[in-house]
């Protein structure tokens, strides 16, 4: 047994070494990089339910707490290894553990030679290549520990010892990081339970143990599972309606359908074979897999792949023929994996499920790899009884190596992931390490609405800077998780590309932004002019509240002098005006520009009070609170029929439209098949898409309305694009029946307000006479001023509004009580009304307690198992001497 395990480990290590490039760091695409600041990372995953660093703050959509289970590697690795080798080492280790787990799992059913063949198949297949080509920790963890999970579960189902139970819990914990995106865990855990259920049906194991497996899995993962359920029940729909998801998910689903045919699934070939990336040498977008496509185009290579699949199916047939119960129990796992990959892209289960399963390959391919390896080993077991053992193993090894030969030439991991992060980024991290960690940083440029960046030194991906910055970073990657983050983008980009300095400063104040980070390394391959870096810097040079403080290579740091300073995101206010209505999406907050900080309490709408002997309007109502149309037509929050129309613009004049004016665009079209029209408006001054969205789908005729707000005063010309896009080989057919463009009095509309109170008190703020303790993202203690001549009416927490934030207070006489109404401040932040009796206020994000409850339950469960094992051991009769 040891010999074959060692051979598998040696081959895996050799493969890892042949793909290693000295002097580089694995970084790019989707990535986790805790090695950039491990203490910071540990704090964020321990207090993992409220992600304070994600822009304006967000409920954890991904199970960040699962990374606690990776500390067994990260803590020693960051001490022993250089920073650039930490991720290299992790993926190399995972590459070794996966085939070994497959070997030991199979060896419980077949002889060691057949188990070796199954482990080799698990290592040398296209699915493995695709999971490591653009390495992400969750998939590598799943690759490594999924086989061990089945091995440990089978051990416990067969023997049921306390030792087996502890090992199973340990494997559950070690495999938890695969749940960084929980959908992957749900699929794999469901498959494991299904395997146990079939064993119980076959009477291989009692039903009691199946229930125990289910409970053990939930208990071991409760520390992240309970917070994830909170997110699912309260915010899962928010992800689906984010602009990034609205634009990207239909394309992803269509591309995945292309690879849902039996031929691709048999080879475990997924959507990445239709993907591209930016080549920094040729300065153009190229195929992601040119080497692999050329390799697989050779008939004998594809023949090996299909032959391996046929062998696995033969293993299924042999299993059914022989009625081997343990082997049959794995058949539903294979069916689940095949069904998920073939039918998953075509399911229409609703926006939440469609969003979660938009990439079925990433959710089901690991299961398919393990199931095919399992039955491949069973077929080899049958073959070994009828042929020379040594010759069969050598032949299989040679054929599988030929099949994945490019991996042995350094193509298991994409060369685009092997980068060297310039030293200036570490200098930026060091600079901000000595600044207030409760500050907020806005990165520039803001040339794209997508959370995907390109850096001139060779990086392409979702981003890495927040792993080294203790402050919150308003990165586009976080727009999907909480709508205020996306709204910030719409507002700041409107201010930047209209070159409106007062509006720009207003947005910085509204969102409590302390620092600006202008990164000159960022490029825009499609439209270099869209970066607008020179225009931004010229505008900031005229500001009285923005000043450049440092430069690190091509990175400039600016500090903002806010008119409403905060202490750890807390500020106090008096006499806040009530602005109505609230809005969900917008690119201009005229109410904040006019009034500064405000609250929104809809149940006070249109009521009047008597104050100081006269009537005072309690609310300021902006009838055209938002004219934003940059998302889907279902997201419009204004009635286009109520917008007064001006001049109808002739089509030949579109290229000469003045940017100082606003416009309403009316499009009449229908979608016959495939993707609907992609409508986008190109600003001919910035060469940027000021608006980009899909028209409604469906065969009936739709009328869509879009508002173009005024942009730069001296800008001229737009181009209106209607793209007929095809993804995944699907045919798109659309008909345009008409388009009309009208000039509108945009500023008159958005500045209109009702129930004005010209004598209303301006609100006042105080940030110097109170103290704040903020030891972690989920907890605040605020000691209020005791002065009798200034009493705050509202406490403001500048984090994204979320009902999970709760507060209570200690009064003048030490009495404990709750806070007043939880209100929306500035259309994005939290606020509470105060009675005047509060002296100490505590704020807590209560869903954080769910993680601690899960950890506590796990601790009690483990203690119970250990205690039970000790008691059982003490009852055993002593051995005869």
Describe it.
The protein is α+β, with helices and mostly antiparallel strands. 43% of the residues lie in helices and 19% in strands. Strands 17-34-35-31-15-28 form a six-stranded antiparallel β-sheet, with no helix packed on it. Strand 23 (678-683) and strand 24 form a beta hairpin.
Uncertain runs with pLDDT below 50, 5 residues or more? 603-617, 877-881
The N- and C-terminal alpha carbons lie at a distance of: 34 Å
Biggest sheet features: 6 strands, antiparallel
Strand order of the largest sheet: 17-34-35-31-15-28
Structural class of the secondary elements?
A: alpha+beta
Helix amount, in percent? 40-55%
Task: List its salient traits.
881 residues, alpha+beta, 19% strand, disordered C terminus
Give a quick precis of the structure:
With 881 residues, the chain is an alpha+beta fold.
What topology emerges from the helices and strands here?
Blueprint: H1 2-18, E1 25-26, H2 38-46, E2 50-51, E3 58-59, H3 71-80, H4 86-106, H5 112-123, H6 126-133, H7 137-159, H8 162-175, H9 182-201, H10 207-240, H11 243-258, H12 262-266, E4 276-279, E5 284-287, H13 290-296, H14 299-322, H15 325-328, H16 331-343, H17 351-356, H18 360-384, H19 389-403, H20 405-411, E6 418-419, H21 423-433, E7 440-444, E8 453-455, E9 459-461, E10 472-473, H22 483-497, H23 501-510, E11 515-519, E12 522-523, H24 533-541, E13 546-552, E14 555-560, E15 570-574, E16 578-580, H25 590-595, E17 599-600, E18 608-611, E19 614-617, E20 619-621, E21 648-649, E22 662-673, E23 678-683, E24 688-694, E25 702-708, E26 718-723, E27 733-744, H26 746-751, E28 764-766, E29 771-776, E30 779-783, E31 794-800, E32 805-811, E33 816-818, E34 822-825, E35 829-833, E36 838-845, H27 848-875
Helix pairs in contact: 1-4, 1-5, 4-5, 4-7, 5-18, 5-19, 7-8, 7-9, 7-18, 8-10, 8-27, 9-10, 9-16, 9-18, 10-27, 14-18, 14-19, 16-18, 22-23
